[in-house]
Amino acid sequence: MFWTTPTIMTWTRIVAIPLLVGVFYLPISEHNRNMVATIMFIVFAATDWLDGFLARKLNQTSSFGAFLDPVADKFLVCASVLVLVHLQRADVFVALIIIGREIAISALREWMAQIGASKSVAVHMVGKLKTTAQMVAIPFLLYDGLFLGVINTHVWGTWLIWISAVLTVWSMVYYLQKALPEIRARVK
Fold it and tell me: How confident is the model at residue 183 (pLDDT cuts 50, 70, 90)?
């Protein structure tokens, strides 16, 4: 199940990252760069939902797809946050929190899977809230202007990225607490 429609959509998110970064090097107006990057991010982020839906609908779920999907999400989010730091639209501290958590929890999940305890670090609601806050904050910060002449996306995006940073820490603490009994049992 390496080349199914859902898996190809997941690969598209990874391949799209240089395109998203490259938009900011195009010789077009800043407003147009922001608009193109925002639309690209929204489309690529939507494929996360769509590939999972199609995998279940077409009965094309696979362990490779289950592995690749969160990797693609993390690449897309981390690359976008780094672009925002470069553009001075997000604080480097936020980037360190988000990227550090992704690395730590990915390593924790891999280790827990190796010892047969992956259920103790299964996705939880606080992790979903964190992801939702990130997926709204990032396009707001990429757009960086007045949306519909009313919504200041920079202000809303800044609040949301900081809220996502708090939820990021909260979710990391939650997952570590859930894994702690297994960690204690193994590290003696």
Answer: confident
> CA torsion angle for 122, 123, 125, 129 (degrees, to 10)?
160
pLDDT tens digit sequence for 49-105: 888 888 889 888 888 887 888 889 999 999 999 999 999 999 999 999 999 999 998
Cβ atoms of 154 and 144 within 8 Å: the answer is: yes
Q: How far apart are CA 134 and CA 81, in angstroms?
A: 9
Name the residue ranges covered by the structural domains of the chain.
5-186
Spatial CA neighbour of 168 closest among 133, 123, 140: 133
Pairing of strands 146-147, 151-152: antiparallel
What are the tens digits of pLDDT across the range 163-173?
999 999 999 99
Residues 6+ apart with CB under 8 A from 132: none
Q: What's this model's pTM, rounded to 2 decimal places?
A: 0.89
Residue in the structure block whose two tokens are 């639209």: 89
Burial class (CB in 10 A: 0-12, 13-18, 19+), 24: middle
The residue-averaged pLDDT of 134-152 equals 94
Q: How far apart are CA 186 and CA 80, in angstroms?
A: 36
Q: 5-186: which CATH number, 1.20.120.1760, 3.40.50.620, 1.10.443.10, 2.40.300.10? A: 1.20.120.1760
